[in-house]
């Protein structure tokens, strides 16, 4: 009985942890770059699409600006 309950718990942990692998990423603060573009009025969907083309790119609107944060191989100077 203990073996069965331990196997079930192990299976649950394995299932949950396998789903987390897609969402985990490591940011090295020195390699974080920012890009800011002004497009009149910022559209959240377009901003996210534009920034997702860069490595680990994320975009969000701040006022009229689309701000992309992404991983750059060489740290900015």
UniProtKB/TrEMBL annotation:
Q: Which residues form a coiled coil?
A: none
Record InterPro entries: DEFL
UniProt key word Secreted: no
BP GO annotations: defense response to fungus; killing of cells of another organism
- In the UniProt record, the signal sequence range is 1-19
The record's annotation in PANTHER family points to:
DEFENSIN-LIKE PROTEIN 184-RELATED (PTHR33830), KNOTTIN SCORPION TOXIN-LIKE DOMAIN-CONTAINING PROTEIN (PTHR33830:SF34)
Q: Identify its protein family.
A: Belongs to the DEFL family.
Q: What is this protein called?
A: Knottin scorpion toxin-like domain-containing protein
Q: Which organism is it from?
A: Handroanthus impetiginosus
């Amino acid at each position: 009985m203990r073996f069965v309950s331990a196997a079930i718990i192990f299976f649950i942990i394995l299932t949950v942890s396998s789903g987390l692998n897609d969402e985990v990423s490591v940011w090295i603060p020195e390699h974080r770059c920012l890009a800011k573009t002004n497009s009149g009025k910022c559209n959240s969907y377009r901003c996210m699409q534009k920034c997702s083309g860069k490595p680990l790119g994320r975009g969000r609107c701040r006022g009229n600006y689309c701000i992309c944060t992404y991983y750059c191989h060489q740290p900015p100077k």
